[in-house]
Amino acid sequence: MAKKIKDKERDSIDFGKSKIEPLFNSIFYPTLLSMVFASLFTVADGIFVGQGVGSNALAAINIVSPLFLVTTGLALMFGVGMSVVASIHLSQDNKKAANYIVTQAFDVATLLMVIIAVAVYFFRIPFLRLLGSSDALLPLCEDYLLPILPGCVCIVIQMIGTFVIRLDGSPKFAASLEIFPGLLNIFLDWLFVFPMQMGIAGSAIASSVSCAAAAGMVVWYMFFRVQTVKICRLKLSPTSLYLTARNVGYMARSGFSSMLGELAMSMVLLTGNYVFIRELGEDGVAAFSVACYLYPIVFMINNSVAQSAQPILSFNHGAGNRYRVQRTFRISLSTATICGVLVTTFLTLATKPLVGLFLQAGTDAYDIAIGGLPLFAYSAIFFAMNVAIIGYFQATEQNTRATLCMLFRGLVFLVPAFILMPMFISPQGVWLAVPVTECMTLGVILLTNKGILSR
């Protein structure tokens, strides 16, 4: 009886037979809600630090931020790769293989993140210098970096768990992995930064504690509620290790472009920090940090479209149902485009109140951000379409195309745009580098994949 009640409480999802529109919406809205909360808790960090500690602290977090993007890139590579491969196995009714894929994704990704965290801890000063920290910002960067390292390990567990739980047929529980920890993080941010006066380290501790809570929720689900894909025991024999390495390679190929997407954002931060501090000084970096705190909202909203479509695309791709694949792609692309237009409009019209959340009016950093954010906001439209198309490539195992598109966004166009744009138009050029990069990437996609928009 208890099992029947439990099953009724679960979301009813059939990736192969349910109507596409209701199926997509049943995944998209909980995913969108969770992504927005994830963005808001990042924004809350910036608001509390900016108002409670100061603009230099905000700039210091922006210097450290590429570490987060490496972390989420690793998690997305294994999360997306695992979801694509496991979805195909499930479409072929091979649950045992899907279970091994899920377990290997958790184990290998977590181990890699632990290694990265330990290496960053022991080489933190050269690492922070590499990220572009100045002498003035270095102490603040170090105060933030050390408490955040345990949270990075928990982020990997949380993000992979989100993909597994969504694949297991529980998108609402997957959404709660962002909502509850996000609310917890906002409360702890306020507590540690204001009443307890813990400064920038308090913000880092708040983030790590909330990520640990999310990881705990994943562990609880995998052991007490999971139905379809389960954690299993991995053997350590040479044959088993070889199979694990092969499966990890398969997952990495399927999810590599997702990691490149995060690394592209990391390059935005890294290159942007260098260019802004050169062109506009530390106030410029503080102003740029406002855009960088708001950019995850752009990313999360549009990524929720791609992640919602992915299990439907992958399952039906594995089952050979071309119509359902094409229909799902059209829905995801149109949804992403609408989201991109709405986000650009919002960021453009609400520039002053948004910047005022982070920086004091009348400061140099505030004035720089007011002039630049509306220009930066145009990236959202092109970014939305790029993410939807690249997500389609990933989900249907067109890994080379997805990887090349991400390389255009994160390296081929981005770095030259940041270097060259300020030479032609300054200071607007530094803000227009990202929109120009996304626009050029979309142009390349459309030129090299003729007919992609009519599928």
Could you describe the 3D structure shown?
The protein has 455 residues and is mostly helical. The protein is 85% helix and 0% strand. Mean pLDDT is 85; it is low at 1-11.
Shape: globular
- Main sheet record: none
Number of helices: 16
Tell me the number of strands. 0
Rg, rounded, reads 21 Å
> In oligomeric terms, what are we looking at?
single chain
User: Helicity, in percent?
Assistant: over 70%
Structural class given helices, strands, pairing? Answer: mainly alpha
Q: Which H/E pattern describes the elements?
A: HHHHHHHHHHHHHHHH
State the end-to-end distance. Answer: 46 Å
- Mean of residue pLDDT? 85
Strand residues, percent: under 5%
Low-confidence stretches: 1-11
Structure keywords:
455 residues, 16 helices
Give the structure's gist in a few sentences.
The protein has 16 helices and no strands. The protein has 455 residues and is mainly alpha-helical.
Task: Show the helix and strand layout.
Blueprint: H1 2-9, H2 20-52, H3 55-91, H4 95-122, H5 124-130, H6 138-167, H7 171-193, H8 199-224, H9 238-319, H10 322-349, H11 351-358, H12 364-376, H13 379-395, H14 399-412, H15 414-424, H16 428-448
Helix pairs in contact: 2-3, 2-7, 2-8, 2-9, 3-4, 3-6, 3-9, 4-6, 4-9, 5-6, 6-7, 6-8, 7-8, 9-10, 9-12, 9-13, 9-14, 9-15, 10-13, 11-12, 12-16, 13-14, 13-16, 14-16, 15-16
